[in-house]
Amino acid sequence: MESALNAIFEVLSFGAIIVLVVLGLGIIASMMGIFNFAHGEFVLLGAYTTYLVNGAGLPVWAGMLAAPVVVAACGFVLERLVIRRFYAAPVAAMLGTYALGLVIRESVRGLIGGLYISVPEPIVGSLIVGGVQLSKWRLAIVIITALVMVGSYLLLTRTSFGLRVRAALENPSLARASGISTDAIYAVTFTFGAALAGLAGALVVPVFSLFADVGMRFLILGFLAVMLGGIGTFEGPVAGGAVIGVMSAALPWAVAPVLADVLVFVIAIVFVKFRPGGLIAVRRL
Amino acid sequence: MMNRRRLLQSAAWSGGAIATGIGSWVIQPKWASAAGPIKVGIATDLTGPTAFSGKTNANVAKMVVKDINNAGGILSRPIQLSIADTASNESVAVANVRKLIQRDKVDIVLGGITSSMRNAIKDVIVARGKTLYIYPQQYEGRECTPYIFCTGPTPAQQCDELIPWLMKNGGKRFALPSANYIWPHITNEYVRKVIEKNGGEVIFEEYYPLDQVEYSATVNKIMTNNVDVVFNTVIPPGVGPFFKQLYEAGFGKRGGRLSCIYYDENTLKINPAYEIEGLASCLDYFRALTKDDPVSARIQAEYDKQFPGNVLFAAGSAATGMYRGLKLWEVAVKEAGKLDRDAVAGALDHAKIAEGPGGPAEMVPGQRHCRMKMYTAVAKEGNYQIVGRSEGLVDPKAC
């Protein structure tokens, strides 16, 4: 019983971490049709910002607040300078963003000396619930993820800004004819996606420590989640992220870990084979 | 359109780049001799994920070579250092190491951090290159190719004293969580033997993908099976989250003992100090030794003076193996009186040095591995405290 409760919590919290990372990736992929291979490095930049602010003597949570802002600014600049030239060529966009990611990753690696550096949690310790120790910070991540998810969903479905974003995705020429600047919309959407990545990096860095490749692992899981969830909706990638996160944390409880790692991919690929559109295939947003 | 002048310019430029090579540096000695310099090649990861170790290796080589040159060189000849970047990438490495051998014609190559790197470059050096090779990193043992000398500790050296200590200061129930590659597999074979010989028990031995970062299932197994000692060979990036989850589950609080034999001053920073309080490691050098060993203190201070910053002189980065390797080779060349490969290898086979980081060292004749002093240390509030010292030099039990 204790062990089951513990398992559920750990699996849930890892699922939340993956959802958090996938959120920005999914929004950019769904709303703009761009597969942002630099997403992992945006996560890294969020983590690095948190580390820098904390290293300057300010509390960790200040760094966590600064991270989305800083990464959003980086995202905005990159969108204006580079990404916007790729909207017509999605394959070139993948290569371009991959190159950007490489530059960011290797720069950060140089700056931190290629080391692994610990960043403290703002909330230390564990809660004891029913005889099980639950990490307070992991619990906080679950709650923040839920809030961010609901917030993003409302923003895209209930506001006039969300309506324009969806219009720009659905039919760009008609949107432009109706007086919507799709150019500006794309810039804002990309910036928003980058901010979410920055927030994700800031929140997970105490759990995984800061190192140059922190985003890499999540990027692969993230793309798997987007593929599994389906592109074109807000819920798709989020649902995909939840499934991938839960699977990769839960499978090692049942089978050998080396096998579990492969199984996640096999299950996802088999699923997509039978349902090519992903979990949520309809363009509802 | 490219005109002829532009074409010639860029051809000249790229020709220059090809001739001098990207990713290699030559450090000339300050003085010369009629016979020309002796050429030492360092092949190590200056870029990529293992660069933090590679940079340490290059620094130590520069420091030792400068030392030797200031003291009059070897056989009255100065040493010229050629450093090639192996870039944490085996295919890049093979090309750059070939340059060391064919273009720079070095008399010896030292370097390589991972075992896969050693395996990739050793053929280029010793078989086709007909050159001596010294591998400085602590590793799984079993490298018995002629003309390859290993100056880092083997599993026997790291475990023979540590495991009995862990049983006394932890318990008899061991878990062996490990990354899925060659070093943990072979190390665990040896660890299991030592545990069982001393009356302990291995509760589980499990392997994880190298980039796994979620360990709740493993932590649960450790907690529910009442494991006393976690003998960890999970590597970064997984090791940080793994130790954190163990701490959060209360493993340390209920008296569990963590142990990890590659843990040095660099890896100590992966987790906040309280999460790994009491972690036991066993290496040939810790910075904590400088308090009571004047030789170690001198070497450490010299390194810190020449290379301040975050590239630390740490045993896990093969700093000690590199120091030892160069010094043993110096002794061997002096004894041989020439640079002929067989003559130097013959002298290196029984070479000894009286002073080095952590203490003296000597080659075990016929084994091409090094006897050295070993130290058991425990993490205390972000630093190491030495809790055990080997009586004399510990045997590598290799080859």
Please describe what this structure looks like.
The complex is a heterodimer of chains A (285) and B (399). By secondary structure, chain A is mainly α. Chain A has 11 helices and 2 strands; from the N terminus they run H-H-H-H-E-E-H-H-H-H-H-H-H. In chain A, 75% of the residues lie in helices and 3% in strands. The longest helix of chain A has 31 residues, at 2-32. With 399 residues, chain B is α/β, with parallel strands linked by helices. Chain B has 12 helices and 16 strands. In chain B, strands 1-3-2-4-5-6 form a 6-stranded mixed sheet, sandwiched between helices. Chain B has a 4-stranded parallel sheet with strand order 8-7-9-10, with helices on one face. Chain B has a 3-stranded antiparallel sheet with strand order 11-15-16. In chain B, a hairpin with a 2-residue loop joins strand 15 and strand 16 (383-389). In chain B, helix 2 packs parallel to helix 11 (319-336), helix 3 (90-102) packs parallel to helix 4 (115-127) and helix 11 crosses helix 12. The longest helix of chain B has 20 residues, at 51-70. Chain A binds chain B through residues 3, 6-7, 10-11, 14, 106, 109, 113-118, 120, 126, 133, 135, 138, 207-209, 211-214, 216-217, 248-249, 252-253, 256-258, 261, and chain B through 47-52, 55, 180, 206-209, 211-214, 216-218, 220, 224, 236-237, 240-241, 244-245, 248-250, 266-267, 269-272, 309-311.
